[in-house]
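Same chain as my last thread, 279 residues:
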Amino acid sequence: MRRLPWLNALLFLLTCLTTLMAGAMHRGVDPLADPGWIAEGLPYSATLMTILLVHELGHYFASRAHRVDATLPYFIPVPPHLFFFGTMGALIKMKSPIMTRKALVDIGAMGPIAGFVIALIASAAGLALSDVAAMEGGGQSLVFGESMAFSFLSWLVLGPLPEGMGVVLHPVAFAGWIGMFVTMLNLLPVGQLDGGHIVYAIIGKVQEKVGALMVGVLAALGFYWGGWFIWAVLLLVLGVRHPPVYYWEPRLDRRRKFMALLSMLIFILTFMPVPVTFG
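reply #2:
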């Protein structure tokens, strides 16, 4: 008999609260001083939680389809006063090994693809609600980098921006931006990240060299954005090598090859060398 997932539910509710608080703070409200205005954070919180939930459920249902024992998602709440996003994402825990290449592709790719689709829709809808304003500069405000996917959406929805103008993101667009950023991080071709699963399923042991190269690239990019130094060290600690699978099918079918290629395309389209700067 399965136990009720009380911890999963509690973490989900706490993350709803911390992202709600973060969304309110993005709107200029202090939810601790003015709790009555916390509903201002609902568009941001609902959008981001939906993106994260769809991503993790993509992994969960793919795991179930391949009879891999996996937990329900564990969300990670963070007080928004400590971390601007209000959460450090979510994860599921694999309680049994992934046995085949096909399972690696399905489990690794379903989460990012599903989450990216929702993030894409959210970004487009949020950009339509966003304002275009003059950029003041002075190094006092956060400027969020744009991936190729987000830049194209911005151009498509808002058109070319006049010189000196910038987009003030609506909370829904900001949640979509975070969704793309999280998707990109998960698709790094390192270790047991989603990207590591997919790349190992395609090229086998050569994935270790690709993972080591990726860590080197992140370390180099750390001179432009310090957060990449942290990621490079974290990935080295976790390990760049993907563990072997029990059964190596001689070839993957077209659907798995397409999913793998689509995932890598999403990684390229969402990658940002400098995610955040002060402007």
